[in-house]
Design a protein that fits this description.
The complex is a heterodimer. By secondary structure, chain A is mainly α. Chain A has a two-stranded antiparallel sheet. Chain A is globular, with a radius of gyration of 16 Å. The termini of chain A are far apart. In chain A, strand 1 and strand 2 form a beta hairpin. Chain B is an alpha+beta fold. Chain B has an eight-stranded antiparallel β-sheet with strand order 1-8-7-6-5-4-3-2, covered by helices on one side. The longest helix of chain B has 23 residues. Chain B is globular, with a radius of gyration of 16 Å. The mean pLDDT of chain B is about 80. The chains are: A mainly alpha, B alpha+beta.
């Protein structure tokens, strides 16, 4: 179980649309650079770097240095930990069934 | 050549680095974080073949080759699912001491995009890191995973022939 401080970091990181979008981008482009991410936004590079920093503190983004470039990866482990906190054994099964129904119909 | 994908899984474990290393690299013992399989290798050293078998050694689901061993910080090996035709992927474990515990980063690389291997590897990532954390923190995997592991055991008799360990001797070349 993650401590409260770690969970606060996760939820505040997720509470901004731009940061959620960065996670979406990294999900489809693992190993993207800051420049790659900037192409998808109209805001300044400084702003993007700030968002990435917040995501890194929450461990939702992991940065790897390869030569002179920084590669960014989505780290799904904290989301799994958050999910585990409230998911119950059988609730999980039914929650996923109703979501399947929603995906199928929408 | 098809596109290769990579992914990173990072988890903090409140345990000494040596315990995490030992839990990860234990041979001939059931590894709950690796779907209750048992790791076999002639030697835990670069260049050695490696396979993950069922506890009775009858079935082998994963084979690979050890690329790097730098205890207790870095372990790199290739991995290939025996029932799939996909080329091997690379798994890197990096351990670092932090705040009295251990930070574990697992990197998956060279995973063939759109393949079944990709599905298996990507869903395996959080499973492996989470269970490893729980086993070390509490001594056993969480209930839902214990149920899942029991299910794998129960369906052993349905396992296809391709998994049979005799088909995957250490001499067999994987490419």
């Amino acid at each position: 179980m993650l401590d409260e401080e770690a969970q606060d970091a996760i939820f505040s990181a997720l509470s901004h649309g731009a940061r959620r979008r960065i996670l979406d981008l990294l999900k489809t482009m693992p190993g993207a650079t800051v420049n790659d991410v900037c192409k998808y936004f109209d805001v300044s590079r400084v702003m993007i770097l700030k968002h990435i920093r917040v995501l890194e503190i929450a461990d939702l983004v992991v940065t790897r240095k390869v030569g002179r470039t920084r590669q960014l990866y989505l780290n799904a482990v904290p989301l799994q930990a958050v999910h585990d906190r409230w998911a119950t054994e059988y609730g999980q099964f039914w929650a996923s069934r109703v979501m399947d129904l929603k995906y199928q119909l929408e | 050549m098809s596109e290769l994908k990579s992914a990173v899984f990072k988890v903090y474990i409140e345990a000494p680095i040596q315990s995490v290393w030992d839990a990860m690299t234990r041979e001939k013992e059931v590894l709950p974080h690796f779907y209750n399989s048992v790791m076999h290798t002639p030697e835990l050293a670069a260049g050695s073949p490696l396979r993950m078998c069922s506890p009775d050694e009858k079935f082998t689901a994963v084979v690979g080759e050890i690329l790097e061993v730098d205890a207790p910080r870095r372990f790199v090996h290739t991995t290939m699912f025996t029932q799939l035709e996909d080329a091997p992927s690379k798994v890197t474990y990096e351990l670092e001491e932090k705040n009295g515990g251990t930070e574990l980063i697992m990197l998956l690389a060279d995973v063939p995009a759109g393949s079944k291997s990709e599905g298996y590897m990507m869903s395996g990532g959080p499973f492996i890191t989470e269970i490893l954390k729980r086993v070390i923190d509490t001594g056993r995997p969480p209930l839902k995973h214990r149920l899942f592991l029991v299910m794998i055991g129960l369906f052993g008799f349905m396992t296809p022939k391709v998994f049979r360990t005799e088909n995957w001797s250490f001499d067999r070349k994987i490419s």
